[in-house]
């Protein structure tokens, strides 16, 4: 660009990034995102279900933080865990369900049925976001296919079944189990 053409531009026009610069910056940013995703994948031992679990737990921690404090679920995470679809689904729901009584304490203004429905809705949203984030990461790494995709789908379906069972159990406790715990042993 010639000096005379620069002198004719306003300061705002000169400070505007060119389209080429914006494209370059976007490319650098995308490369950084992919590198970070790769680093996450490598640090998880390329185990997509471990990554899925960690992503779901991270999102659940975010949605539960206001009520239960920082890293409520992460504090319960054990690094040497079974990451099969069934075990991952069980852990996601069980760890979340463990915080129901704390959620109740934080929301005494709600009746029990509303507490149950609100809690399950809250953790469902966190789980959905966690799965979406994990899928996005794995898709960005171009590994969201075959067994990995099938395992994630299976895990998600199992989580949904377990959430439904959790809600049914909380809303309709087994009277025989309640009687057994109330009777002196």
TrEMBL record:
Q: Which domain of life is it from?
A: Bacteria
Q: Which InterPro entries match?
A: DUF5610 (IPR041651)
Q: Which residues form the DUF5610 domain?
A: 46-165
Could you tell me which Pfam families the record lists for this protein? Answer: DUF5610 (PF18433)
Composition bias (Polar residues) maps to 1-12
**Record region (Disordered):** 1-27
Protein's name in the database: DUF5610 domain-containing protein
